[in-house]
Design a protein that fits this description.
The protein is α+β, with helices and mostly antiparallel strands and 189 residues long. The chain has seven helices and eight strands, in the order H-H-E-E-H-H-E-E-H-E-E-H-H-E-E.
Amino acid sequence: MKKNKKKVNEILRDLFYKTLNITPKHNLEKFFKLVGLKNSEGRYPIQTKIVDGEKGDLYFIKIPKSMKFEDFIKYQVKLEKYYGSSVEMNWDKDYLTIEMYDNGYRYNLERFFMNAGLKNKSNHYPKQIKVLEGDVHNGKIKKTCYMSFPDGLVLDDFIQYKSQLEDKYNSNVNIEYIEGYVKIDFTER
């Protein structure tokens, strides 16, 4: 019964995000499950809320019994590489806070293209639609970003920034048009 309720809650949350056109922030519960970070009873940490922190997004994580701060510190580097952000962790009784912020490797292409002045005649900038979580290919971390394709822009408008993106993110970059979106692949060098 609890499993069904949790699944229903996940579906409702996803529907809520989609209805309000909200891009959810990182799902740290997914990361914890991916790396097997759980207590001896098989319970995983639960992400309870996300707020704006001093440097970036601040995640509040409810900790299952018998887990310690050291259990999380062991995964800090993996967490940073997986999401491409700097990570600071703090412990307060039953909660862990994880602050994730831009370290020069975060894939915030919306800000990048806005700063570069890439916009159409109606002053619409490309919007970052989705960033696929990091995959590992041949030992290298790969991320894929999808951007909106405002009317009046052409693919070459994006391609002209390829070398700047490669330098900024220390990655090999591939840019292509896919079904109304610009797909930008980053593979770390």
